[in-house]
Amino acid sequence: MSTILQLLATFSMLSFFAIGGANSVLPEMHRQAVDIHHWMSGSEFAALFALAQAAPGPNVLIVSLIGLHVAGLPGVVATTVAMCGPSSLLAYHIGKLWHRFRDAPLRGVILRGLTPITIGLVLGSGYLLTRSADQSWPAYVLTAVTVLLMIHTRLNPLWLLAGGAVLGLLGVV
Amino acid sequence: MPTSTPASSAATQTLSRRELFSGFFKIGLSGFGGVLPLAHRVLVEDLRWLDDAEFTEVLSLGQTLPGPNICNMSVVIGARFQGAWGAVVALAGLLFAPLCIIVMLGLLYARYGQIGPLPHMLNGIAAVGAGLMGGTGVKLAIKLERTAWVWAVAAAAFAGTALFGFHLVGVLLVLAPLSIGMAWYQLARQTKHNSEPEQ
What we know:
- The complex is a heterodimer.
- Chain A is an all-alpha fold.
- Helix content of chain A is 79%, strand content 0%.
- Chain A has helices at 2-17, 26-36, 42-54, 62-100, 105-133, 137-152, 157-169.
- Chain B folds into 2 domains: 10-143, no CATH class; 147-199.
- Residues 1-6 of chain B have low confidence and may be disordered.
- The interface between A and B is large, with 100 and 102 residues.
């Protein structure tokens, strides 16, 4: 039981610091799980991270895998609820406030200020993902082709991902 | 669903909890290596629950608030259509399938210590995932207003996080007040200009 409480405490704290998503607290998550609580080794942490990246869904689900590793299914529930709960509660209330003041001039000003930052950050993640994902020139070509197809066609991204998986299996990229 | 209108928006439609669940279920299940491109695809282009401006708006909120962006977005969108239960249903729809899949993968990994050909597939998936994120960024950037300082801020956010590797929180703390300040200054000037009597 105390392990569950530790998981709840650790991940609900991380939830509030995860500005920009779960990946921004990854270093701290690593420190907590490996160095402080000794729940797993560094290489086990890396394997769980790779697994979370490979599976469909939000990257935040690395916390569910950590929970599974530490305490089984109750651990999954504890880490997932702790990681998504507090921030979701905050998002719910801020979102309601945001909607209530939809005609306020200040809201328009805040939105106009935040919009370019948001778009710059999305482009930045695209760049960072490219740098970390692409180890060979065919991989860069695949990324570039994907960008062009995304912009110019309405092709379902799942087809592109499936194509990428096949090229990966064949060892092309 | 208003399929005949080219761009729909949250202001003009109602959605049931079932629709919210199934919409986010689709997003959760299909997002490999980052859910955001799929969220844009499903919410804006396929289901047309939001237009591009509304998507960027909800994304801005989701990114600025702590917590996983996409979870925040599902909560905000769900709440807008169906209140508290809408938020719960949208978040549950988003996480349900991926959670089941990842627990199964985790159990397999714990039992066999390896995940078969997954790492090789991951190379290709990651390369495509990076392209999807980049393509989504370009699509949103195309809709960005053509004002010099707005593009300067976008460029600074990109350079700060991607090229210089600054921490996101630092980038937000510097750029957000600056950018919001600029928007406020411009509004104030505009208002003043409009209220001046014409010669």
